[in-house]
Amino acid sequence: MTQVLKVKLPFDLRTSSDNAVFYNTAHEEQKFILPYCNSCDKYFWPGAVICQHCGSNDVEWKEASGHGKIYSHVEGRFAFHPDIKEYLPIAICSVTLDEGPRVFGRLINYGEIEKVPYDAPVHVVWLQDDERGCTIMGWEMD
Amino acid sequence: MSTDLRNKYSIVGVGYTPQGKVPGRSAASFYLEATMNAINDAGLTKDDIDGLILYRDFPILPGDAFHHTGNVITYSLGIRPKFLSQEAYCYRTNINKAIGAIENGTCKYVLIVFAESGRTGHRTWTDEIDLFSSKPYDEYAAYGNISAFTNYAMFASRAMHDYGTGPDIWAEIAVAHRQWANLNPNAIHYKRPLTKEDYMATPCLSWPFRALDATASTDGGRAIIITTTERAKELKNPPIMIRGYGSANDTAKGWQLTPGDPASSAAIAGRDAFEMAGLGPKDIGAAQIYDCYTYTVEATLGDYGFFDKKNARDFLTVENIGPGGAFPVNTSGGLLSEGYYMGMTPISEAVMQLSGRCGDRQLGVLPGTKLPEFMIVSDNGGFYQSNETLILERGK
Lengths: 142, 396
Known about the structure:
Chain A is mainly β. Chain A has 1 helix and 9 strands; from the N terminus they run E-H-E-E-E-E-E-E-E-E.
């Protein structure tokens, strides 16, 4: 079972009808699923009715590993909006999943941002905000 | 664009306005002033303008009553263009549309204009959050990613790993731009010198980027006019010919971008522009690059092939790209230090330089410089995802 951390998020989660399945599943079942194409056997991101690789509409949500490597990372230290001020600093990363797609997330338990290694293996940790009723991806180094 | 169109189109007028912090003015007022100044600069009348392209729409700010749609501006100008267009988002299509509308016989003179009151109106660049309700527009806000700044910082962060770039190179870029701005009385940062030490002493807003890595919002406007080179020869300014043109778009989201991707929008647009022009990087004497961030200059020139991306440090020095350097870049001070008029900043400066109207910063007059025959101009949109590239040539 994937670890769940209770957190307070700076804003509501607003996503599309196409990608809501991912976040609803994360919130209710703590499962990491990805859009998958049955025609070309590839995963993609975010959710869409057509496979971005081959254009097939034979796509479904499929459970995935929740493992990948950090592609890039930054640490937000400035309140570009007043409502985020109390949550700073916030580290954000992109992760190239073992399944292929590059996804987004919060980097957690990372120490000093300047020392975080690129391509470090990471696993998903769900960041759950009970008040806002939503769950997002956190990434922690293995 | 087809090689048949090489040098067939020219830029014939540039319109400026007061810029920087200009309180008490609506964006609409800058649209109108920049437009009329470009028309007067070209020696045309407003009724000659049969194509009007508003660069893009931004959310309105305090002091504005309406979105600055084409209709609002054409009404105030009292013109009825056959072709009227405006992007809702950040794709770069303006030059393509302008040439297309003339080439297909619809228009003779197409004017492209951008204006805003972003400085006084405090444009925040947090498109992820609604300005009035503070509610998010997308899922990234919940993660804390609420600015273009963060997305570009992600792009630059990975480039530190892949190509060895970092704040030492970005400081050179920031300082070179500031030195150019200090030769340009119109620049927002005129008489505000900057050293590499000053740069390094400022804090990161979103590591690895500092505030000095980013452009800031401006009050003001900027316009240009495009017509055929044949018609341009009858007008008062020397025609600045479009020798090469390319455009391209990436598929990735901003935070997904791969630095150095050989299929990046800049790489493809640049390749096509060189091909149409029949030229290569060695033929280009100076560059006006869309410098929304310092690293954008590095990414763009690297993707164009001006240097090996792992050796950017040798090319992007104040001595090489600043005043008096062998390869001048962003001679007005650019978006970083002159003023933020999106793609109108680099293109207008290229036209002014090639027509010899740049005062103390004029290439060929400034000691140690020469007026280049060819200049490359970039405009990129989104988060480095959309690109128009021009290679301009001085008309004889």
